[in-house]
Amino acid sequence: MIALETGQDWQPIVKEFEAIVGKNGVVRKREELLVYECDGLTSYRERPAVVVLPRTTEDVAAIVKVCDRYRVPFVARGSGTGLSGGALPIENCVLIVTALMRQILSVDLENQRVVVQPGVINSWVTQAVSGAGFYYAPDPSSQIICSVGGNVAENSGGVHCLKYGVTTNHVLGLKVVLPDGAIVDLGGDLPEMPGYDLTGVFVGSEGTLGIATEITLKILKTPESIRVLLADFTSIEAAGATVSDIISAGIIPGGMEMMDNMSINAVEDVVKTNCYPRDAEAILLIEVDGLEVEAEVNAQRVAAICRQNGARNVAIATDLEDRLTLWKGRKAAFAAMGKMSPDYYVQDGVIPRTSLEYVLREIEALGAKHGYKVANVFHAGDGNLHPLILYNNAEPGALEKVEELGGEILKLCVKVGGSISGEHGIGADKRCYMPEMFTSADLETMQWVRQAFDPHGIANPTKIFPTPRTCGEAARSAPSQAIAGVDRF
Amino acid sequence: MIALETGQDWQPIVKEFEAIVGKNGVVRKREELLVYECDGLTSYRERPAVVVLPRTTEDVAAIVKVCDRYRVPFVARGSGTGLSGGALPIENCVLIVTALMRQILSVDLENQRVVVQPGVINSWVTQAVSGAGFYYAPDPSSQIICSVGGNVAENSGGVHCLKYGVTTNHVLGLKVVLPDGAIVDLGGDLPEMPGYDLTGVFVGSEGTLGIATEITLKILKTPESIRVLLADFTSIEAAGATVSDIISAGIIPGGMEMMDNMSINAVEDVVKTNCYPRDAEAILLIEVDGLEVEAEVNAQRVAAICRQNGARNVAIATDLEDRLTLWKGRKAAFAAMGKMSPDYYVQDGVIPRTSLEYVLREIEALGAKHGYKVANVFHAGDGNLHPLILYNNAEPGALEKVEELGGEILKLCVKVGGSISGEHGIGADKRCYMPEMFTSADLETMQWVRQAFDPHGIANPTKIFPTPRTCGEAARSAPSQAIAGVDRF
Fold it and tell me: Which of residues 229-248 of A touch B (CB under 8 A)?
């Protein structure tokens, strides 16, 4: 008998779930629920009341209808790799896990579309079509474990989003279970559909508008040729100026990543690529792609711009093996950082490219003020920073101090005209910073849309929007919760 | 004294408008209202009760607040070139015309952004930045007269949208006056913003969610080099197969347009380009752009694919003058058609590229069945058809028959997995076909969002969504209007 703090009797709800997905599809033992307590944002934890594992759209609709009838909140979860707590359970919630929804439903090479269930792993999409010369562009670092459903919820990015855009640019249509259990189709098979673009609203809505159960993705032709350049600089400024100059020259690299000295040394300590110079203040990894002639010409143009900005060395890799060697350190950077420091806190902010030098200097100063080292590994072309704050969670109060530093970095991003999130979402982690970017009227408008989808507020409530409960700062400036009490209709 | 059929006393409303924009900013004489009776869809006409011409966001907000207070509907209008009746006045409405909102508010070349008022003409944006090597990509045929605000409302496309996307892909942020007069910011300066993507919902919402008063556009670097190819074919099938083969080869042309024999001859009769062969069953105009080497290699690849598919001749133009000559006939095609026939009705549908040959044959058969000639000039690369039905409006009942034929063409598009609109919007013209593409649950979901923005239904009501009032067919299958009576909250 499961009876939780609120007095909710879960027995009849669990029985209904078992009737839908079978006893094996329902998890309710305390020890088994443990693994669902958090997602990639491990500093927040909350145990769900029950976990349900559907296999089909109809399963999800039936489960959600039960939640709607009992007015219990539900949270959707893919692989649980999200870094902002979007899939963090809330108290007394039903956690709907898509781990058994892993079918690739259709592949249409002629029209460059693939339809998948939400539990399908990101890299499987490319694997399914690469033999025919296609790929799926959005490539979060976690792509070998993260789910497409989670990517849709968080509007995930990746290294190649500079040229090809984030998840929302690659989702054509969605079959969605709304918070009342209705099944609707948003978008469709075509790039543009008549009526309101609700696909765009849904992508990045972090599970607050319903659950996507079928996702139609756009796939791209694999480029004929790729070059990867590694350029090293004796100053962050020179590397930053190089990034701006490349874009100003009209070149849009497939990816353009920067790593600072601390990251370079962490990577070389652990991964030993032997190609990242330990004495460089910054390196740039730049990938150019397209026709063979295009990749070659652009590689030479990029190399020239790097040298004009004082790069000491510029290596150009053409063969797949050489390219993977150059990328290896970047891909392993977060893991390497984990070996350098007992704990690290990764932040995700965006700035205009033109503020790169200023912001990196300020981040260093903020780190020094708080007594923490901050390493920088990031998508330089998009201005999407990932400052990694190194700390030791064993020190009392360290996490709070680190979160404060992280918050100051986000405010710095907003100050220069940037954003509090580039590709990790808002989730539970950053909702208190939303008023930094939006007026109360802006946030209210979003909340009206939320209510249009979810009038009873049972779909992943407490995420995205600031609430006075959890965030003292937001309580002053965020009237968005007031909308819950406003009768607009 | 203006007192209309409904008994609405307009005098106090007009006085309030005059207080906001001055007497010169308010039009209420019958003869002056005449020009506002229709937009580009000239077969529908309705006189507005009053026309107001604001200059600023604050003017618009004040005007809309008056409308909200008196509960009178308002319709926004840019240049009035829309082809689906999106800016068609409705009975006893206030028409808010953005013709005096024509300031380019800021140009930020470094971050590739331009902020404009909604009345700014599409081509002015490119003119403002072309000297510095930039351009604004969406290029509707009407780009020298249509407004950016209208482009946002209708999510306009154009020749170059195959490679670069339609308006929604180029709008970063919007300042919007909501239907209650509140001013909010949707999106912002960055490609991705946290929270719901309401910019995406607003673009293409045809004035039903509010009025955009400041629009932040993304501008692109002008490509280094451009080639335009003209290939002529002895069959539509061969031209269609060429289109598919070019895309399958991984080439994304800047534009890929097809014209059939009737269009070719109409153009040569009127424009006399002397380069479109009159005996060709179809021609393709294909533009490739990028680096000089890339444009050259792709032009040769495209030419080879055209020849493999039986093209009789392939001309390649590199110089600006030669390129403009090749484009001249295409750009003048609609006007030429107007000289060939007393009237023409232009339809706008989308099909998967792979259905091109089948659909063009079916359109010809449908035309023959109804006794009308149908010319085809269209964006072949996107599968975005523009069948032009030639008719004489002086014949009694002709328009009704032509509209019926147009409707059958749209249903054909839907049948093969396409869409009832590519770039002209739904407006007043096509709302009755929405149930062909969407279930009632899909349409209800859109209507909930509409209500979230516009609870009193005063922003361009009767557009987009099917209503039993105007469309017998839709009345059977479209329960979407029922939502107006549903209390969701």
Answer: 244, 248
Class in CATH terms, B104-221: alpha beta
- CB within 8 Å: A203 and B197: yes
Q: B341-415: same fold as B104-221? A: no
3-state secondary structure chain B: CCECCCCCECHHHHHHHHHHHCHHHEECCHHHHHHHCCCCCCCCCCCCCEEECCCCHHHHHHHHHHHHHHCCCEEEECCCCCCCCCCCCCCCCEEEECCCCCCEEEEECCCCEEEECCCCEHHHHHHHHHHHCEECCCCCCCCCCCEHHHHHHHCCCCCCHHHHCCHHHHEEEEEEECCCCCEEEEECCCCCCCCCCHHHHHCCCCCCCCEEEEEEEECEECCCEEEEEEEEECCHHHHHHHHHHHHHCCCCCCEEEEEEHHHHHHHHHHCCCCCCCCCCCEEEEEEEEECHHHHHHHHHHHHHHHHHCCCCEEEEECCHHHHHHHHHHHHCHHHHHHHHCCEEEECCEECCHHHHHHHHHHHHHHHHHHCCEEEEEEECCCCEECEEEEECCCCCCHHHHHHHHHHHHHHHHHHCCCECCCCCCCCCCCHHHHHHHCCHHHHHHHHHHHHHHCCCCCECCCCCCCCCCCCHHHHHHCHHHHHHHCCCC
CATH hierarchy code of domain A341-415: 3.30.70.2740
Which tokens hold the place of A230? Answer: 């590694």
Has residue A220 got a pLDDT over 60? yes
Average pLDDT over chain A, rounded to whole? 92
The encoded tokens of residue B6 equal 């409904």
Query: What mean pLDDT do residues A368-395 have?
Result: 94
User: What pLDDT is recorded for position A42?
Assistant: 87
For strands A282-290 and A225-233, give the pairing.
antiparallel
Spell out which residues of chain B touch residue A191, defining contact as CB-CB under 8 Å: 165-166, 382
Class of the CATH domain delimited by B11-97: alpha beta
The model's pLDDT over A354-373, given as tens digits with 9 standing for 90+, comes to 898 899 999 999 999 999 99
B485 inside 8 A of chain A by CB: no
Whether residue A453 lies within 8 A of chain B, CB to CB, comes out as yes
Q: Which residues of chain B from 428 to 447 reach within 8 Å of chain A, CB to CB?
A: 430, 434, 437-439, 441-443, 445-446
- Mean pLDDT, chain B cut into blocks of 10 residues (489 residues total): 62 98 97 95 93 98 98 97 95 97 96 96 98 96 95 95 95 98 95 93 98 98 97 95 94 96 94 93 97 96 98 97 92 87 93 90 95 94 94 93 95 96 93 95 95 96 73 32 31
The model's pLDDT over A83-130, given as tens digits with 9 standing for 90+, comes to 999 999 999 999 999 999 999 999 999 999 999 999 999 999 999 999
**Are B455 and A489 in contact (CB < 8 Å)?**
yes
Question: Quick check: B449 and A449 CB within 8 A?
Answer: yes
Window 96-115 of B, Cβ < 8 Å to A: 110-111
Looking at CATH, the fold of the domain delimited by A225-334 is given as Alpha-Beta Plaits (3.30.70)
Taking contacts as CB-CB distances below 8 angstroms, the residues of chain B near A464 are: 194-195
Q: Which of A1-10, A274-283, B98-107 shows the lowest per-residue confidence on average (mean pLDDT)?
A: A1-10
B190 near A CB under 8 A: yes
User: Cβ of A452 under 8 Å from any chain B Cβ?
Assistant: yes
Boundaries of every domain in chain B: 11-97, 104-221, 225-334, 341-415, 431-485
CB within 8 Å: A204 and B197: yes
Among A111, A244, A419, beta carbon nearest to B194: A419
CB contact under 8 Å between B197 and A192, yes or no, is: no
Cβ separation of B352 and A488 shorter than 8 Å? no
